[in-house]
């Protein structure tokens, strides 16, 4: 079956521009996560969607970052007024249900470069 | 706040050598423990996990990990590594919010 997909795979943008990153989770997965991975760093948790509940946004680094999940499926991470420090690989993951014990299935990531 | 520490950032081994990657976390409540692996050019995937019961858990490809509650540790081991084990390994304890360590880059020479 299809795994988690993300688009675009690479995005180069200029400082100050807005970008949108897309994630298509595995069909039927109710939980969706966004992470950021900078060079030499671990995965930094950004936001977590659980079914129809309000998302946990505790990991978003600033108000320039936002995310939405439409229809309980596709999610879009938006970064406004991008800065060079936003350059990183953005990973999306999904799991069957929300819960501390559930395996996350990861997408290939979007590599964002801010010039 | 929950945090995780992976002690080895870069490990280089020859085939057939034994492997142990350290992972310590700080959280006083119930924590579920995961190791994920990312092979070159591939997505992150689950290697093994621990929730309860036998503190020695086995995962894919001959890997195992031991949960030592008193030490807040969940070290990953493999008795004899192969060239195909070359990858990035992430320890990920979780209590509600998932937390990932910085990762350990393992290179196995044939």
Descriptive notes:
The complex is a heterodimer of chains A (115) and B (110). With 115 residues, chain A is mainly β. In chain A, the strands form 2 sheets. In chain A, strands 2, 4, 5, 8, 9 and 10 form a 6-stranded mixed beta sheet that branches. Chain A has a 4-stranded antiparallel beta sheet with strand order 1-3-7-6, with no helix packed on it. Chain A has no helices and 10 strands. Chain A has one domain (5-106): Sandwich (Immunoglobulin-like), CATH 2.60.40.10. The radius of gyration of chain A is 13 Å and the shape is globular. Chain B has 110 residues and is mainly β. Chain B has one domain (3-109): Immunoglobulins (Immunoglobulin-like, Sandwich). In chain B, strand 10 (87-95) and strand 11 form a beta hairpin. Chains A and B meet through strand 5 and strand 9 of A and strand 5, strand 6, strand 10 and strand 11 of B.
Q: How are the SSEs ordered, and which strands pair?
A:
The complex is a heterodimer of chains A (115) and B (110).
Chain A: E1 5-7, E2 10-13, E3 19-24, E4 31-37, E5 43-50, E6 65-69, E7 75-79, E8 88-95, E9 105-106, E10 110-114
Parallel strand pairs in A: 2-10
Antiparallel strand pairs in A: 1-3, 3-7, 4-5, 4-8, 6-7, 8-9, 8-10
Chain B: E1 3-6, E2 10-14, E3 19-21, E4 23-26, E5 32-38, E6 44-50, E7 56-58, E8 64-68, E9 73-78, E10 87-95, E11 97-98, E12 104-109
Parallel strand pairs in B: 2-12
Antiparallel strand pairs in B: 1-4, 3-9, 5-6, 5-10, 7-8, 8-9, 10-11, 10-12
Q: Low-confidence stretches of chain A at least 5 residues in length (pLDDT < 50)?
A: none
- Percent in strands of chain B: over 45%
Question: Judging from the principal axes of the Cα atoms, what is the shape of chain B?
Answer: globular
Spatial gap, N to C terminus of chain A:
37 Å
